[in-house]
Amino acid sequence: MLPKTERFKQGARETLADPVIQESMEAVYNGFHTNRQSAGQATEGWDAQRDRGRAIKEHTIANLDYYLEMLTDKVDANGGNVFFAEDTAAATEYILDLARARDVKTVIKSKSMVSEEMSLAHEMEAVGIEAVETDLGEYIIQLAGEAPYHIIAPAIHKSQDQVAEMFAETTGTDPGQTPEELTTTARGMLRETFQRADMSVTGVNFAVAESGSIVLVTNEGNGRMCTSIPRVHVAVMGMEKIVPSMQDLGMMLRILIRSATGQRISSYVTMVNGPRRDEEEDGPEEFHLVIVDNGRMRLLADPNLREALYCLRCGACLNACPVYRKVGGHSYGWVYPGPIGAVVSPVLSGLKQAKDLPFASSLCGACREACPVRIDIPNMLLHLRHQVVEGPREVRSVGRVERLVWKAWRFGNMKPGRFRTGGKIANLLGRPFARGGTFRRVPPPLSGWTRSRDLPLPASTPFRDRFKKRRSRGRG
Ligand code: SF4
pTM value? Predict the structure, then answer.
């Protein structure tokens, strides 16, 4: 079977033919996208705030080693432990060892994209530890055995009927339950799990270097339950999630939440400052922060791709993207879908296996426009496309014939004379194969072009010649 990131075209075709998903994806645009636009318009100095947010990320990523050291010292001073993991295997091993050492039977998870990179829930189940997602969307896709479909709305592709049926199959509830009833059912089941969990694993929206605080943004309160009930709390973060100060945090929360859901502030913003102190009633006995690299150093080292580390994972670029809204999240084949996924996945999971992703874009620029920190995604996609075509042999993924075809195309388009002559030759050679002025099907490697559209035959008299003729007749 092909690695999932190599199934982009197949996945996209399947999604386009699925009316339920196509209808569900309307919500991405009509909900999140329009809410973000309204929130931006209603916020005074919105563009200046985005500029400030970008400046904070630029500064932090340029001084990442300094701030990571500061964060480590502060978490240490707060009574927590910090573990740097070079890859997901190291991070997983650390967490599983910890769970075994503390005799953990049940782990509750709050939304974490990095733990998706690690397939942590599967790894835990494999060694006999029960791992339960507590974000409702994540819980639904865990029941379905699927990966998240959207960065902030993991089950956006599921219809109400599908969720009701799934709950009925797994929990024996009535398949005709309303959304409110489904939520109540999930709440009841999760509450019981919260109470018996020994350990929690959460993501990190921001880590504040100057205080060692871990910040979680949620709308369901599950993050707060996860960080206060179990005796061990493990927070897992990509190394880019750091902000220097509390003042910077205020700015970043403002632009993240408005860009993600259009809210002024999410229902819960939880800050964790290490394990429970002696005088405190709630909180874990132990706090561990796992900081994961897993290919991020490669992004940091490449000046053309470094900006990807500015990402706040708000999902705005997905909602704005005309490609994502049609091909859906699973077509991208890995943890991160949409425009930012098309940049991050090839670098973190391997360009050769994800060679179609940089091409999954019309380069319209809607993602850059929507991004709260103005990440230049189209430019990074072009850079990756260049690597796929012209990069080192180990990442190059375009066949010799296709390269030759595009080289000839480029040569033909470099000079007006060549373009004119090339068009005339193509018209002469193509005439016997064209029907009604178009080619219905062309041979590989360009066959993909005519799979869902026609290719026009180059005109016998190009526009340039017709225009000249009209002008000489005095009608121009
Ligand atoms: S690239 Fe920008 S818009 Fe897309 S998820 Fe990241 S921060 Fe949000």
Answer: 0.89
